[in-house]
Amino acid sequence: MASKDPHRSEDRDGPLADYRRKRDFARTPEPPGTHAPGTSGDTGRFVVQIHDATRTHFDFRLEVDGVLKSWAVPKGPTHDPAEKRLAVPTEDHPLDYRDFEGVIAPGEYGGGTVIVWDQGTYRSMATDRRGNDVPFADALAAGHASFWMDGAKLHGGYALTRTRGGPGRGETWLLVKRKDRHAAKTDAPDPWRARSVLTGRTLRQVAAESDGAAGPDQPD
Ligand code: MN
Q1: 150 Cα–ligand 1 center, Å
Q2: What global pTM score does this model have?
Q3: Intervals of the chain under pLDDT 50
């Protein structure tokens, strides 16, 4: 391992290889991203985006080991512990995707509008059966990880649990609010009424403002 050229291995086999393979960075405004393998501390940043792709969905991303571990959550995160939300893993995204808001051109991978619905930090609450702390990345790899979120909109304990499949083989997970003082009957917002935590804009406003921007398809 030590003899590998870190740059080559990063491009071909690194954690962002899938992310880069799916995209043409000459055609998408999304960041190519850099991978800075950080400490695997058990705190990190998170982002929840709303993405008007083929189906409008929420993208739930947690910073783990220098990338954003990502799940598509069709109905979005809720504050209600009685609601179990399907979460389907997607490829790791670069950390700078945390601030990505804009329009991915039709026909490109993930084509559609993205807003940053919530941002903040989380800390691991992952423990083994005896209640001892375990590294967050290990807990995720084992298919169950709890964490505490401090966002502008999301607060308190959540858990991600794998319910089907294994790495790369039709995995499904559930995202569930834990019972704590932040539990409430509050559901995820209507994605079309929700506003960006960064700019206050809705999906439609981001799309409309992008239409006015100069681009290769703009007749002069
Ligand atoms: Mn998405």
Answers
A1: 22
A2: 0.87
A3: 1-10, 214-220
